[in-house]
Amino acid sequence: MLDYFSANNVATRAFDTESPRGTLKRFHPDVTEIVDISATADQMKILDTLNAVIPSVTVIDVRAGLLSPSLVSLRDIGFLEAAKAGEITFAVFHILGPSIASLDEIAETANFMTGAKYFLVKNFINNTSFFEWDHSTYNSYFHRIKDATELTIPKLDEMAFEQVEIASVPFLKFVANKGIHDEAVNNSFVLRGYVRHWLANIWSQYDRIKLTDIVGSTKLGREQKGEKIIENMIGPGLRRATG
Description:
Structural class: alpha/beta
Distance between the termini: 5 Å
Shape: globular
Strand order of the largest sheet: 2-1-3-7-4-5-6
Radius of gyration: 18 Å
Largest sheet: 7 strands, parallel
Number of strands: 7
Number of helices: 11
Oligomer: single chain
Helix content: 25-40%
């Protein structure tokens, strides 16, 4: 998602709740800060600065296990009420894995989604089908929240994924044959092709939901109105593979 915003010239800052390691921070160090979202001081660091003009889009990468506690904190602070009142654009991209444990989190999330734009993101880390073969099971999860929108993150070739991990660069840099410091590198033509095709499929999903319109008037140099906050919520046991 940070690659997508960068390519569309949308000014963005990010917070990585995987403290202290910070996977997102490793790939996007210039715009990402590691926080402990359960700590009041770090909650203030994120939310008390939402009125900054640029960047007006805040991405919070919520690690596995912190989804419900994070939403409870946002409710208690009054953030969800502000989103419901239209003072803040709040979008939740709930990244799901093909397991009942992951899908059960949809029920935990449902009561917090009033006023939010809620996206159920199927993250295909293997060749499963998210129980589409069992209509009752599938419908009980994916039709639980009214107006929720489904997105699909296709499976990325395993070797391509591992090579990006080793390179420790964003997907766009990997495709462009650039290293951590923008130096020229010589990544595999084949693996770059897989990543390029995979990114294009994901970005077509973002285009379909008009993601840049959701965050609204956020192009660099344009006047801002309100803060936009996006939470990427990672389900249990999932690898990060979102572009």
